Amino acid sequence: MKFLFDSKEFGAQYHYEGKDLGAVYGKEQTTFKVWAPTAKAIELCTYPDGAQGACLQKYPMEKQEHGVWSVCVEGDLEGTYYTYRINIDGKIRETQDIYGKACGVNGSRSMVVDLKKTDPAGWQEDFFDRKGQTAPAIYELHIKDFSSDPCSGITKEHRGKYLAFTETDTTLNGQGKTVTCLSYLKQLGISHIHLLPTFDFASVDESKPLDDQFNWGYDPENYNVPEGGYATDAADGHVRIREFKQMVQSIHNAGMGVIMDVVYNHTYKADSAFQKTVPDYYYRIWEDGTWSDGSCCGNDTASERYMFRKFMIESVCYWAEEYHIDGFRFDLMGLHDVETMNEIRKALDMLPGGRDILMYGEPWRGKETAMRKGSIPALKKNVAELDQRIAIFNDDTRDAIKGSVFLEKDAGYINGNEELGIQIPSCVLAWCDGKGEYMPKNPGQIITYVSAHDNFTLWDKLNFTLLDEPEFYQRKEEVLQLNRMAAGMVMTSLGTPFFQAGEEFGRTKNGIGDSYATESAINQLDWKRAEEYGDLVEYYKGLLTIRKHFRALTTKEREILERFSFMDTNLQETVAFHIQGIEAEGDWWKELFVIYHNMEQKKEMELPEGSWELLCDGKSCVPGGLEPCRNTIILNEKSVMILGKK
Ligand code: CA
Q1: Residue from 97, 149, 337, 362 carrying the catalytic annotation
Q2: What is the pLDDT of residue 382?
Q3: pLDDT of residue 2
Q4: Which of 54, 386, 547, 606 is 20 to 30 A from 331 via CA?
Q5: Any catalytic annotation for residue 243?
Q6: Could you report the per-residue pLDDT of 270-324, keeping only the tens digit for each?
């Protein structure tokens, strides 16, 4: 029989609503269930090891309703590795469980796990005040980059691992002076750490020494299992789970939330566990039989298909519940349909504290995709179709401030293309003014940023545009000045601010943009710079403090736009605006006056009436006030000036 996956008949007969797929562990017995409507027969195979050795035992599975195959095995199977041998049209292929919660080294065998056994001490009490984060600020970090640097102060065996996050009170070279790693992040003023892929990915060989291997990890293997390369032991399926939880617990104890970068849009290879289990169901295929490749990674998963949508929803909720994850960043969200994204939002909302779990994603895709007709892709132009608590990365703001991410010499407003001044008020208003070709429902739908792991670091981009011969490792005042200006603009704009780890100390990757598999030495955070560029770090801290104490900047509701009024200026030279505060609890000022002065010369400007405190003069940012001013102010060259009124 031919299966027409998108037909009503297929849906009626085979869509499975149960939430018990995978191995459901019990001390007396474990039940295995696989959804595989096209299979002729399936055997469960158990193994004593995650990679080595022959099958211990085979158990034929029974076909039940809705295409689900099941077997119940008596006894305590905790720690037993397993696979399924799936017979489709006489061809037998062996695969791990797509719903597997644990796995062996390199993930080709799943493992039965008693998750309670993986909880670190105190896990039941683990807590992060999601609701209390009134001024969210997101820090984008790769686990290995965080602590690979030998100067990081982290013990050697934890460098590049989950456990690096459990070390507190670390300092540069252990000298007790400049704090590093988690202690550093704790005092920076961010609310959430966004981790680059941490689910099990395939591009690092966990069975080989990991020191010389590096990858960002956008190549999913097992969605519901942590990556093994960051664990101290990848072979024992328990270790990565326990250490991941220890990491989360430690970040929570430091007062920050944890966001996962999730990559449901494609799998590492087309011949994945999904494809072996139900061939061609989970992927998009063009009518001529060629595979859709909107991800530019060889395949696109089909979020609009019932069982993949279900998989995504359950997977996200699983991470939120089991691992206490506080937010999700969706890679190439434009490849997913808005219905799936909104369903995920609804499912998260049902969890305790779930309404305050963040959701955001990239509202674009690599190429066209074969999404089923009638589905709406979660692209930027469709932002209004997304739930108002799903946000998108705003590439318009990113590129308007400092130039295209694709062309190294292309300039933005601050570094040579003053004509983009016309777009800057829209950047400030998180594009809720309707001047883009899309209409966010509110500032809460926008991630405001100028740097991320993709493309050049802000420091490198500014070097390329300012200097004929970039000197990435030199401290250059003109680069610093524009770094401060870019950050000042992001932090005084609506939307949720986001920045790549180390942007605040002039992180360089020596001019390399696409460093996804470049050596660790180029990618890792250079903790010496946290000291060398300590003045820049202080400047970022000041900006983050202002946001915390002036809630009009962090309000997600659309009405807040009415409190922003722009002065009549030549936008190429100066953008100036007044913000009437909402006088929220904890606010330090009633009003702010912000000026982006984009000229190489100083200039005098009239101030709105009253007595003002200068909080930021483009060189330093001191929320307690640098000096009082009245009537006029001298604008520093290439600066963001911020004034507050009590
Ligand atoms: Ca892996």
Answers
A1: 362
A2: 98
A3: 57
A4: 547
A5: no
A6: 999 999 999 999 999 999 999 999 999 999 999 999 999 999 999 999 999 999 9
Q: Please tell me which residue in 200, 331, 503, 526 is annotated as part of the active site.
A: 331
Q: Any residues with CB less than 8 A from the CB of 362 and at least 6 apart, and which?
A: 330, 331, 332, 333, 334, 392, 393
In tens, the pLDDT along 352-411 reads 999 999 999 999 999 999 999 999 999 999 999 999 999 999 999 999 999 999 999 999
Question: Separation of 205 CA from ligand 1 center, angstroms?
Answer: 7
pLDDT digits (tens, 9 = 90+) for 138-158: 999 999 999 999 999 999 999
CA 50 to ligand 1 centroid distance, Å: 13
- Of 212, 121, 136, 124, give the one whose Cα is nearest residue 166: 121
Q: How far is the CA of 200 from the centre of ligand 1 (A)?
A: 4
Cα 59 to middle of ligand 1, angstroms: 27
CA dist., res. 329 & res. 218, Å (int): 12
Q: How far is it, in rounded angstroms, from Cα 469 to Cα 458?
A: 16
Among 297, 325, 295, smallest CA distance to 195 is for 325
With 0-12 CB in 10 A as exposed, 13-18 as middle and 19+ as buried, what is 17? exposed
Question: Do 108 and 93 meet the contact criterion of CB atoms below 8 Å apart?
Answer: no
Q: How far is CA 383 from the centre of its chain?
A: 18
User: Can you tell me the distance from the alpha carbon of 589 to that of 579, in angstroms, rounded to the nearest whole number?
Assistant: 10
> What pTM does this model have?
0.98
624 confidence band (pLDDT: 50, 70, 90): confident
CA 315–ligand 1 middle distance (angstroms): 17
DSSP conformation class of 411 = -
362 is catalytic: yes
Q: What is the pLDDT of residues 199-231, one digit of tens each?
A: 999 999 999 998 899 999 999 999 999 999 999
Mean pLDDT within 435-446: 97
CA-nearest of 174, 182, 224, 167 to 199 is 224
Using only C-alpha atoms, the chain has a radius of gyration, in whole angstroms, of 26
